[in-house]
Model the fold of this input.
Amino acid sequence: MTSNGPWRDTGRQENRAPYVEAGTNPTWIGHVDPHDYRPAPGNTAGSVRPIFRASPPPSRGATRGALLPLLLGGGGLALLSLVVVVPFLLSNTGVAGFTVGFVASLVPLSAVLLTVYFIDRWEPEPTRLLIFAFTWGAAVSIAVTLLIQPLFAVVAPRTSEAEFRFFMATVQAPIAEEFAKALGLLLLLLATRRYFDGPVDGVVFAFTIAGGFAFTENILYFGSEIANSRNPGGDFIQVFILRGIMSPFAHAIFTGTTGLIMGFAARRWHSGQSILAFFVGLIPAMILHNRWNSMGEDFFAQYLGVQVPIFLLAVVAIGLLRFAERKLTRQRLLEYAHAGWFTPLEVDMLATPQGRRSAVQWARQRGRERQMKAFVRAATDLALTRQRILSGRDVQRHQEDEMRQLAHILPLRNAVAS
Done:
């Protein structure tokens, strides 16, 4: 790196003894057992500022090919689901209600997707997987719920209309809806181990699926008030305040607990543990969903006393996850710095929000913003690949990825420093 940037080179890093110390386990989301530890490969190029160029690692194309069946299958399921979902919505809302509901539903959806963007900024998931997650929530999980509903209707109490509706809201909805949403998480976990490998990823995918589900559900609720109410304007405003302003994150928090638990299971990959985590993760999601739908006459008291604290707890938990992810990235990059791939000050640039902002600003002034962003992203991916290696899962495959990524890091560094 040149010395006039926001960091200063400290010279060539010697490849000394393996970097093993207490800092190896910087957070609770990236614990490494001692027998799984492996030193980072040394930089045999002899310099941290190489002069040769290389092409991007070929593993990205292979990854796209591996995801193709999932994306095509998900797209096909989404199209089939729309055949069920769209007529259902139109029959309950009419064209005018559907249109108003669609537009109004964009407001809470925007809040959820902006939150996903905020959580996912450190190590962004592939856009195609986020689109899969959203379409699963907005179409497939709705269709699955509609297909499951009749089974609950058969066993629901029929003594009164009120008891029937209460059963469907507090028993059928939590079970059927959370199961349908979590199926998408399970597919992502089983098919995209490279990307779904921690609690942050689980929360991101869960929030995206839940955002899609809530979007379609809101179209139904908002549109029904327009189509069926005697006072459509007033009733619509009331429902919009309740669902669009007071509780845009309700479904996200429900399903987010499932994603969180499945994400922890993904830290050490095992298909049996992942399936077990799917069922375990459904329990808190269903309980939270049941408690929300059970609020009755004392709604506002329960909302302020229970739901608001749960929301604040979720905010704190997400903040802790993001903090832990940054610490984990820094520790893994320090291990590569010890092996000669980075300098310690470069690690601070790559693994802290302030350092990244300073580096991008410096690169922008020199017309290298795109190269710097690519360098930061590649270093983050490399740190997470190392964490997968140290977790002891698919070690050989991830070591091959590691060598390709390290070869890619050198020309990226050269492009920034030139």
Summary: Confidence is low (pLDDT under 50) at residues 1-20, 50-63.
